[in-house]
Amino acid sequence: MESSNAKNILLALFVVTNLLVVATLMIDFSPILAKYRNYPGVNEAKQESFQSAVTPVDRVEDKENIVESVDWRVYALDWWKNEMLSSKDPNWSGRQRMHDELKHGKLWYDESVENYFIHKLEEHQFPSNCSRNHWLAYQPMASGLLSCVHVLHPVLMMAMMKGEENTVIPVGYFLDGERTNPTYFGCGELRDRHLGCFFNLTSCRIEDDEMRYGALIRKSTSNQPRGVNWDYFMNRPTYPGGMTVLRNWVPVWPRPLDDDVRIQKNSTKPKLLFWNEVRKHGSVGVYGMGEAAVETVWEDYIEFAFTSMLSSWMLRQTTARVKEIANQIMAKYSDSTGRPLWKAPVLTLHVRQTDKSLEDPFFKKYKRYRNVTDYIKEMESFETKYKFEWPSIFLISDSGSAMQSLAEALNGVTGLPDSANGEEGKRFIMYDWTDDKDLIERTGGHNYIPEEKKHSAQEHFLASLYIIERISDYSIVAYSSNVGRFISELIGYRHRVACAERLGPSALSIDDCWTHD
Ligand SMILES: *[C@@H]1O[C@H](CO)[C@@H](O)[C@H](O)[C@H]1NC(C)=O
Ligand SMILES: *[C@@H]1O[C@H](CO)[C@@H](O)[C@H](O)[C@H]1NC(C)=O
Ligand SMILES: *[C@@H]1O[C@H](CO)[C@@H](O)[C@H](O)[C@H]1NC(C)=O
Ligand SMILES: *[C@@H]1O[C@H](CO)[C@@H](O)[C@H](O)[C@H]1NC(C)=O
Ligand SMILES: *[C@@H]1O[C@H](CO)[C@@H](O)[C@H](O)[C@H]1NC(C)=O
After folding, report:
1. Any domain includes 10
2. CA of 267 to the centre of ligand 3 (A)
3. What are the TM regions of this chain, as residue ranges (predicted)?
């Protein structure tokens, strides 16, 4: 899917007046490692996003009547937090047993840790003065949206870990000729193709800075290699008002070479140093273990924590249009007063098919996609083991027929996936009914989404994820897909728990050879 090119590294230093613009780019859309390991993350600005995105929780408690929140965006949270509600739910104790068991031994962090992290991130990305900051210009790869998001995370982390005034600026000037790229149609006057088309990532605009904009344009039209590597960026001083153009993919950094590292205060690794800084601002621990356990926690858990904070933050920074679509989808699943018709806890089922065959371990082995009944078997075995039922299920898939089969297997429906909602003994099924669920299948794969539909298809995709982040309590996904990993991060963030194995408190990955790394 990703084009790979020469890996020539060449540095060019521009001294422009008294600015030092390090603008070395590398033409390198090297293939994403099939097994992506560089995972750092950010957080979610909860309070603030709740204020902006949500009407006040409308709950009246008296002795007998608890009127639940009418806003779908806080409904699940309400169920988690409010014992008055949850204790009355016959499904609560089973779900609770499951949750407690799965989070045992996993890393948790509190709201202060998260707030500090987000605060730091926003300080870098929304500086009081953009001209003064050093810019780290970064172009996405020609790959799927969440693959681009996951690769942006280490870049954001690098800027934060550098500990100086560094701002990551998404640029897409060099991403040309990618007609088959599924992700970008282009945005802004320049029809530029980068993650800024979907997320409000920074207040600094490259177009507003003639000097740096000029340097970038010169770079894009020259034959010079593009971009410095990450080590180069980390190990050299950066200059106020300057710019580093980062090549887009380097697999080694900031991933430690050895997994067997203790999380000690004297670690010199930037990520661990940063973790040790962040955790000072709140509390962290390991469920079911003594205080010392956090000093030896698996480093992948820390990565997951960072990553899930970043993923959720990005989703909060998505566009008003995406949030509007989410509201539209959920309106169908509410009564006329807006009160949700679904019940917590919500299970998300994610099925990735269409053109995933080359990366799907099941497909590679059996030359076909997994039968969706496998997902349902996993679901049922949780339910049997912990003695509860998921009353509501959110479906997300690039395959309309997979969604249809799931609904059929769950509820015996042959019409629309959600057509049995409200019937006795049926699960309440939700999905993005506002879009053409068969588009990708019909066109033959993500890369073939017609140009003019790309942007809207991505907005709908993000809207489903936005809903999942708000309502989902658990998920059964495929970690071989960035989408599956992203969903796990979102739910992990919601529970503020980090886990890297394929079975954890936010997700079960149906791929047996994949962990979340
Ligand atoms: C921003 O920083 C630049 C460079 O240091 C400075 O010239 C400019 O006056 C600053 N702008 C504001 C609004 O402080
Ligand atoms: C972008 O995000 C920042 C920080 O969250 C916020 O202050 C700003 O208003 C947002 N801008 C837009 C256009 O949404
Ligand atoms: C941290 O410092 C202690 C004492 O100097 C040393 O024994 C230990 O090996 C160091 N740990 C790391 C990871 O460097
Ligand atoms: C999927 O599983 C169901 C139920 O076990 C079965 O009826 C169906 O034939 C299976 N489909 C495939 C393609 O294996
Ligand atoms: C769990 O919820 C479902 C759907 O609301 C309900 O039918 C079922 O009875 C509940 N399970 C238990 C153990 O009460």
Report:
1. no
2. 8
3. 9-27
